[in-house]
Each structure stands twice: as structure tokens, then as C-alpha cells.
Amino acid sequence: MIGTVTLKRALKRAAGYLAVADAAAFGRRPARHACILVYHRIADIPFVDPRLDDWNVDPATFERQVAALSRGAAIVPLADLPRRLEEPHADARPLVCLTFDDGYANFASAAVPVLVRHGAPATVFVVTDVLGREGPMPFDSWSRAHQDGTPPATWRPLSWEELDRCVATGLVAVGAHSHTHRNGLLATRAELIDEAARARSLLVARYGPAAGEAYSYPYGSRRLGQVTEEYVDAVRQAGFRMAVTTDLGVVRPGYDPLALPRVEAHATDSPAVICAKVRGMLGPYRVTDLLRRARRASGTPDHHV
Asked: Under DSSP, is residue 28 helix (H, G, I), strand (E, B) or coil?
């Protein structure tokens, strides 16, 4: 029997081929938009678990993707997105923001060197309660299952000192991915307020007001109730100016700044596919996104973001 993860990767690969075909057939979309890409783990993993998704892009593929984006898109800091979207179309290239959820140690060791080589800004969203832990993040099923057979940098969270060095490059902004990675569907209003406020307080104390600008909702689906109006209100009250979800889509003028859609970067994405995604060719991914939502809606542990 084909494993769930193997099937998912095949579907994502097929969606990528269709997205490239759409890009070739229809060309660049005329409407001004930005694509916020989301990554998680950047590591060399020589095997595929057929049951648990590693949410990984290997470093070589990541470098090819960033190189392609550097040539074909304008990679901009997430904090600059509102201004850049409202600017006249002086630059015909699509806008793209790079974001990383969870805050793995391999962000520092594998992703940041690539960002530096290409001068690409990015935002890393960290779970403040797990920074500096020696073991896997409690919500990461893949890491807990494979910690004994993979290097610690594959699954370990960043330390505060590693995060300091990332910020010191001048290319990395820090945002909050909550304090404990609580699922908004299962949390009370008081818990949601605490998740957002405590994470912002810790980050601002160390990195200043800029670290209290952006928030990434854990799990992040509005359709599945993981991002409720109460959660949005809690993030707003905490003082965040922007927040990203896992809802599939590009950002257009007039967006809700506290519920921004994103596009997942896959290990199967060639340079042509990643560029098609950034240009807004997302139709083929609507099907795979609905399948992912159906699994998550039924209670199957399909995603830990």
C-alpha cells in the first residue's frame, strides 16, 4: 500500500507540473500581488517516513529555489509588504516574502547561509517556550519519532544565541509563532491572549519593537477553526501589526493584515515550479489543499505548523 506521505508528495509534484503549464499558457498575472512562501525544516534527510511528513526542503533544493527567486522575483522583507503592494508597478517582477515556521536549529545552520549568499531577507517565526531546548519540539511528531536516527540539528529548536546570530546578519527578522504552539481550535480566549502576549513580550525584550510586529498562527487554518475571530483579536490586542495563516493564496491590496494567506514551498518544487507559485499559479494546489484540509478536519494529525 502506498504511504500517505508518498501519495501526498506525488500529488504535490503533479500540481507543480500543472502550475508550470499554467504559467506557460497564461503568462504573468496582471493584478499586483505578493506571495508569502512558508518553509519549516531545511535539512538533509535520506529517507521518507510513509506515515509522518517531515515538512522538509533539503538545503540543495532550497538554494536552487532561492537562486531562482532572486532572478525572477523581488524578495522583500515581510514588514515591507504593505508599502510595496501599494507602490506603482515600477518593478514588473512579482513580490515574494520568505517565512519559516517553528524555528528549527537548521534554519541557522542551513537556511541562513543561503539567504546571505543571495542577499535574501526572511522572517523566522519562533515558538518562544521551546527556544533552547535540547529535545524535539513537543508538537513535532516526526522529530519525536526520528530523533534517535537523525542529527540533532535536524529536529532541535534554535537556541536564543543562534537566533541572535541570525538576526545579526541583517537579513533575518524575528516573529512569534505563539508561546507554546497551542491549537486555536482547542484553546480558550484567555489562553489565546496569553499565547500571543507572552511570545511578543519575550521577543520584544530581546530584539526590540520590530520583533513584535508579525505573528504566525500555529496550524493556521481559518476554515478548520484554528484561527478564530477570538484568536485574531488576541493577536491584535497583543500589539502585532501583521499575522500569517496557512490558508492557500497570494496577498493582494486590501488584504486583512492579520489573516494573510501563504503558499507552502515543497521539496518537490523545481525552480520553475517555485516561480510559478510566486506568480500566482495556484489552481492545481487547490485540490491538494482541500485533501489536506479534509484529513485535518477528520482529526488525522496531518500538519504541525
From this structure: coil
Domains of the chain, earliest start first: 4-297 (3.20.20.370)
pTM: 0.88
Element (DSSP H or E) covering residue 214 = strand 214-216
Q: Residues 83, 18: contact at Cβ < 8 Å?
A: no
For 135-185, the three-class secondary structure string (H helix, E strand, C coil) is CCCCCCHHHHHHCCCCCHHHHCECCHHHHHHHHHCCCEEEEECCCCCCCHH
The pLDDT of residue 92 is 77
Assigned C-alpha cell, 237: 490586542
Q: Are 55 and 40 in contact (CB under 8 A)?
A: yes
Q: Hey, CA dihedral for 153, 60, 173, 241, is it positive or negative?
A: negative
Rounded Cα–Cα distance for residues 42 and 112 (Å): 10
Mean pLDDT by 10 residues, the chain (305 residues): 49 45 43 91 96 96 98 96 83 91 98 98 98 97 97 97 98 98 96 98 98 98 94 98 97 94 96 95 82 44 49
For residues 304 and 130, give the distance between their C-alpha atoms in angstroms, rounded to a whole number.
15
Residues 6+ apart with CB under 8 A from 153: 43, 104, 105, 106, 109, 110
